Amino acid sequence: MTPEFLANSKVQTAPKLQTVPSFLANFGYNKRDCSGKLGNSGVGYSPILQSTSTRRSFSVSSSRAVDEEEAIERLTSVSKGTSARYEESNAPLRRLMRKGVHSNYFQALWQKQKRYTQAQQQELALASSNSSVAFISGLDLANLVVNADLLQLSCGAIKDLLAETNQDEQLSETLSVRYKLVNQSNCTIIAFATSPLCTKDHILRGRDLVSSSTLKEQGFPLFDFLCSKGNPSFSVHRAAINLFQAYFQELSQLKAQIHDLKTGELLVKSQLIVTGHSLGGSIASLFTLWLLDNIKQTSKINELPLCITFGSPLIGDQGLQRAISGRSIWKHCFLHVAANKDPLPRIFITSQANPQYMPFGTYFFCSRSGCNCVDDPEVASRLLKSTISQVSAEEMGIDDYSGIGKHLKSRLIMRENSQLGQPATPPLRQGIILQLNAVGVEITAQQQQNNSINDLISELERHINRMALQMKATDPKKLNQVKIKMAYLEWYKKDCKTKGIGYYDSYKNLYSISDREVTRHKKVLVSYWKKLAEDAEQKPQKEGANMRETWLFAGTNYRRMVEPLDIAEYYRQTGKRDYKNNGRSKHYILLEKWQKEHTEKLAGPPNDKKKQSVAGNLTEDSCFWMNVEEALISCKLLKDETSSTAEKQSARQFLNWFEQYVMDQINNYAVSPEIFLERSSFMKWWKDFRKMIETSHDSPLGDFMKNARYRQYEIGQF
């Protein structure tokens, strides 16, 4: 039966509000820290090389990680988390407040956020309520971006770069790339721009997509790291990738100034911002992706670069979107600023059901009416499409974006507490209308009766509710349930030992009701870890390895505890053989492989700590009991007069190997002392084997067992 301490335990959960985006954690300084003139800079440019490419068709399959880190960090989080997790997720907001962001509005907003924390003790019953909180918070998050002066700093660097462009370069018919590296005490900015200024014609001339396979054939596989088993291909905007490829040598020199190839660390001591306008923003995005792949995987979120683009076109397809969105950290390193009247961010937006181009990262939509942040690609795409009717004939320059930023900042200061009287959890529909108004889609009460407006609001409402349901699948509550299931198995293991039998043999023979209850707990654990292992395998190599390290210890502990139960079920059926090839689940194979890759460099003789704790340790080889079962079968084959000569020879060879295998495990203190319990399958094998071997048979294991040295082993003194 279930132990009392587990039967009475309840997982305490509370609704989790949308977290402040991780890109704000990357930007921990305020306007006063980074004011003043831009520092020393370097400018590089050369004529573009013309090249052509062919279009390729390909297919992609989606993959989604369900690790705890992603569940906590998702921008549009509507899952439920603990109060501690909520406090942790809002660390960037706390940091901004400590840094001196002290307008009246933000002081009041900070108090409202604190009330949210206290209110977490009550559950929000409806998914739509959770969704509305997540959706409406995009308005507050956008205001945080404005207040942190991210826009003005980036615009200033781009404007300075453009001011250095001479008239001859502006009159050139061929695009070239210019960049500027600015070093300050609290930040480093890399600004990109094109010369002459990029127009719609430049972008449309290279509007087709270039697949990753085509780039590889052309000898430019730089972005192959974005491909994975679950996302085998992607495509990028031809004009952007051709421009990047043409300036690869210059960009490599720039990268060498800020990144140490040997250590993988950034050489800049302050926050790195990579920014650009129009097609220069596309170059900034590609440069940031390249940099992210080369940065040391253990880098903290606030040590990663932040890419800010202004009026940039979409640069890739769904494959590129999935490659970036599938990374729990990378996707928060991109902030795309799109004004409601700028045609360039919408130039590839179409009415097709399956559009070629798709957004990624966080979108900062702005107009003179307000601003909001959106990190969901589908919502961002829909908002870009819904504002096409507002665009002007001419592209918006960096001066226009700078003006909008200043206007939004002044509105924020003047507004003060005007919006703080709104309900903390407005209805979802009201939240959608507020956000649409912020990006320039003004909706009056009469307009809400309009079919097209209603369709837009309803579509966004359905999508956000779907996201709420999907987030329930990654609810951190499941992590607590998994921990409880593992705790139950730990109790079960100890309970069996008090009865003089190991948990493997007790479960195999189903001696009691608790043995049967184990099946239910095991099923939950196996389902959880199967999904986790499958998702990790779909990740690109570096991202997958980085993700796995966060739960590898738990995965190894799970495998060593649970796989013996699967082996017991397998051999419980008469006539079953060769579990490893015929019955072993793939997720055990993956977990074992990753664990070996992680610990092979740490291999060595057992230390004193391992010896002293051996009594409570799990057997390290989760297939140990499979080998015991095969050894028992081999003994039967040798005793069976009907066995063929070949079968007996194979059985002898296996038993010789098994003796050495067990002794190696003992010497490394890698087996649990439970295998020596009187009623264990291993002791049953030893009794059968001892009767069969000749008196003259001498082996280290024979000596160990005959002299009962396992008693010394159990106390770590063998």
TrEMBL record:
It is found in: Cytoplasm; Nucleus. One of its GO terms (cellular component) is nucleus. Keywords: Cytoplasm, Hydrolase, Nucleus, Plant defense. The keyword Nucleotidyltransferase does not apply. SUPFAM superfamilies: alpha/beta-Hydrolases. Its main location: cytoplasm. GO terms for biological process: defense response; lipid metabolic process. The keyword Membrane does not apply. Pfam families: EDS1_EP, Lipase_3. Residues 488-703 form the EDS1 EP domain. InterPro entries: AB_hydrolase_fold (IPR029058), EDS1_EP (IPR041266), Fungal_lipase-type (IPR002921), SAG101-like (IPR044603). One of its GO terms (molecular function) is carboxylic ester hydrolase activity. Residues 233-349 form the Fungal lipase-type domain. This is Uncharacterized protein. It comes from Dovyalis caffra.
